[in-house]
Specification:
This protein has seven helices and no strands. With 155 residues, it is mainly alpha-helical. The radius of gyration is 23 Å and the shape is extended. The two termini are 32 Å apart. Its main location: membrane. This is Sodium-dependent multivitamin transporter.
Length: 155
């Protein structure tokens, strides 16, 4: 077999002209959508409309949004490795979700709904004051910054 590369085609690990065109086109379209809604005002004129979609969303798009926000490269790559290394012991996490989800749905979420709060940080400020909200926000921001580095590095 002859292992010489075919001329004119990009090699593994190289981006060709078409790749750059597709990337540039994707960035232009994404930027264009953002600029369009920024210039036209869109439907999100108030904080309530922006943060909560004016409380008009059905369950399905909210559920898909939450599911997508929890999926990452770590989830896709790590779950397989966890199952391989530890076998069915990993199922204990799923069992804890089955136990914790109804508790959260019936005891915690109604509190936020009655208070009309959009985040746990608003609740922390209402209950414990601004310094607690600030500490929780900083801790979460630091954790997410460190987590994003791992998520981007994993693939």
């Amino acid at each position: 077999m002859d292992d010489t590369p075919v001329t004119g085609l990009p090699q593994v690990g190289e981006l060709g002209a078409l790749d750059y065109v597709v990337i540039a086109l994707m960035l232009l379209i994404s930027s264009g959508i953002g600029l369009y809604y920024r210039c036209t005002g869109g439907r999100q004129a108030t904080l309530q409309e922006y943060m909560m979609a004016d409380r008009s969303m059905s369950v399905l798009p909210v559920a898909f949004s939450l599911m997508a926000s929890f999926m990452s490269a770590i989830t896709l790559l790590g779950l397989v490795q966890e199952m391989y290394m530890y076998g069915t012991m990993f199922i204990m996490i799923n069992i804890s979700y089955i136990i914790a989800t109804p508790i959260v749905c019936y005891f915690y979420l109604p509190v936020f709904f009655r208070l009309q709060k959009t985040s746990v940080y608003e609740y922390l400020e209402l209950r414990f004051g601004y310094p607690t909200r600030l500490c929780a926000s900083i801790a979460f921001s630091l954790q997410m910054t460190l987590y994003m580095g791992i998520v981007l590095y994993a693939p």
